[in-house]
Amino acid sequence: MKAYIRIIILAAVCTLSQSCKKYLDIVPDNVATLDYTFRNRNETEDYLFTCYSTMQHLNEVVKSPGFVYSTEIVYVNNTDFHFFDETGFSLPRGLQTAANPSLNYWDGSNGGQALYQALRRCNIMLENIDKPIDLSAAEKLRWIAETKFLKAFYHYYLVRMYGPIVLIKDNNAIDAPVDVIKRKRASVKESFDYILSLMDEAIPDLPPMIQNQTLEYGRATKVMAMALKAEIMATEASPLFNGNPDYASFKDKEGKNLFSTAVDPTLWEKAAAACKDAITEAEKQSLQLYDKVPAVSVGTVSDKMKDILKLQGLITDRWEQNPELIWALNYGFPYQNFTIPRMTEKSPGLASSVPSNFSVPLSTADLYYTDNGVPMNEDKTFDYNGRYNLQVAGDEDASYIKNGYTTAKLHFHREKRFYANIGFDGGIWFGNGKINEADAYYVQARGETALAGPKSLYATNATAYWPKKLANYLSVYDNVFTASDFKLPLIRLSGLYLLYAECLNEANGPSTEVYTYIDRVRARAGLKGVQEAWSMYSKNAGKPGTKDGLRQIIHQERRIELCFEGQSGWDLRRWKELQDVLSKPVQGWNIYESNPANFYRPQTVYQPVFSIRDYLWPISTNSLIINDNLTQNPYW
């Protein structure tokens, strides 16, 4: 983004006095400098970038509830040696408290961004947008729209975490009395209504797409806003917020209901319409599913490997090369040193700085379909009960598993996204400095003497599975570690397709339109359509023909397609399925054993802790004391 260094400096300059934080930090204390800040176009644009600055860091995955709370990846570090703030990864262990909440986005502490400060900056921008004398009318409209988009997004982020929130429509006056400053929480409906009204005001004046990617990448567009609006509406329609009986008695101190008490099925219809509008606009702007082999450093490879590289590239290819990308942030993914296994003779020497310990549990590996496009436990041709038994890889497996290597049966005959997204013992790992498939590395994870096996307390992958999707094939882990950067998406076209299918199914049940959009995503993954795959291979052939059955299929499809992208944690939360996922132990292989018969025995890494109360974040006890108009979330 243009003048990115200035953004960081200005963000620090414009961060407001901590004395106001106790009242959501919305009372301006820098009025004397506002005339200077908004005196001309350039200074005003710099302030706009400070409004963006909070958003740019909301995609730091280790501080994202959508990433750390899904247990798609577990981080187990039982030492005093820390590579980063591990607060988020502790949440599934039941360590959240109201006295000192982790990832506190309400107040801005313990890894959480201060979203109410961000909202305050947005309001200051809107209040002063008329001051710069050299700002054109067209730019003024765009900047107002961008600021309203940001206000909507920050409010939405808070609603996803806290449910009913305090709406910051305007900043308080400097001399506002205390009873005005102590604002009350709006209901869930009021919160969503306000967020959507901001989106509707913003969308018409946003540019359809960014034309100057070098200077303006990351700024809001019409496509981005329409896709986000669709997601917001789907979230409002989902079971967590739409007539959730767990919160039927949740009221504020004056007796106002903060949650709806009845399900509104029309919300799904409205969300479906918003999804279709966003898809139409995206395709109008030539967005399409990514389906190409990356052009850099790829030599002689088989057709099977080309398919794997296509599926890897849709995340790790450069943003200007990715026609599927609707929204990604400038903040990149800086954790590839946690996602790539040691595969060369020299790589163990870097274990202290390249720990390779983002661990994928067995439950995530189990999510992926067989190569017939149905779940492992439904596939009539798959030996599900014998999936932990041993099998030796042959010529037909060569692009996926090292020829002659003994590994678990569940690693064979899986869909291509499994091989593109997950690294496993015996699995082929293309790249890491090799450009020809014949020279490709493979993962050796059994026991402490194996290259990728345990090396120290903090350089051990606890499950012997790696999130390969989050590793660029151009990155190299050898005697030095060289990462080829990429930006993790917030919204991709495939996710929008599946969201549309979900909303249609929830509104009216199975239909040709629902199948069409699911099957577009499946076809890119090399799978047959839903109806054909289930009728041919599933023990439950009629599953796609019922609303409940198709819901299960869509949910699993989203979890597979968007795995490791920080989306599943949010989806599982809005579906009210997170409690079921976290009721099961996190398991991996018996990593200290070198004999395959002993290695391939599931071991429990830890038992997650989650209850109904954890669907919403607690407001800190201190905030409740300071503002006695606030009501704590249920069960806290």
Summarize the structure in words:
The chain has 636 residues and is mainly alpha-helical. Among the domains are: 215-289 and 324-330 and 489-576, Serine Threonine Protein Phosphatase 5, Tetratricopeptide repeat, CATH 1.25.40; 303-316 and 333-486, no CATH class. Helix content is 37%, strand content 6%. It is built from 22 helices and 14 strands. It has helices at 4-14, 31-37, 41-56, 65-68, 115-128, 137-162, 178-181, 188-202, 213-216, 222-237, 266-284, 303-316, 362-367, 416-421, 493-508, 512-524, 530-537, 547-561, 568-574, 578-581, 596-599, 621-626; strands at residues 74-75, 325-328, 358-359, 390-392, 406-408, 423-424, 428-429, 441-442, 465-466, 476-477, 481-482, 489-492, 586-588, 603-606. A two-stranded antiparallel sheet has the order 1-3. Strand 10 and strand 11 (481-482) form a beta hairpin. Helix 6 runs antiparallel to helix 8 (188-202). It is globular.
Sequence-ordered SSE layout with sheet pairings:
Blueprint: H1 4-14, H2 31-37, H3 41-56, H4 65-68, E1 74-75, H5 115-128, H6 137-162, H7 178-181, H8 188-202, H9 213-216, H10 222-237, H11 266-284, H12 303-316, E2 325-328, E3 358-359, H13 362-367, E4 390-392, E5 406-408, H14 416-421, E6 423-424, E7 428-429, E8 441-442, E9 465-466, E10 476-477, E11 481-482, E12 489-492, H15 493-508, H16 512-524, H17 530-537, H18 547-561, H19 568-574, H20 578-581, E13 586-588, H21 596-599, E14 603-606, H22 621-626
Antiparallel strand pairs: 1-3, 2-12, 4-5, 6-9, 7-8, 10-11, 13-14
Helix pairs in contact: 1-3, 3-5, 3-6, 5-6, 6-8, 6-10, 8-10, 10-11, 11-15, 15-16, 15-18
Family: Belongs to the SusD family.
Subcellular location: Cell outer membrane
Protein name: RagB/SusD family nutrient uptake outer membrane protein
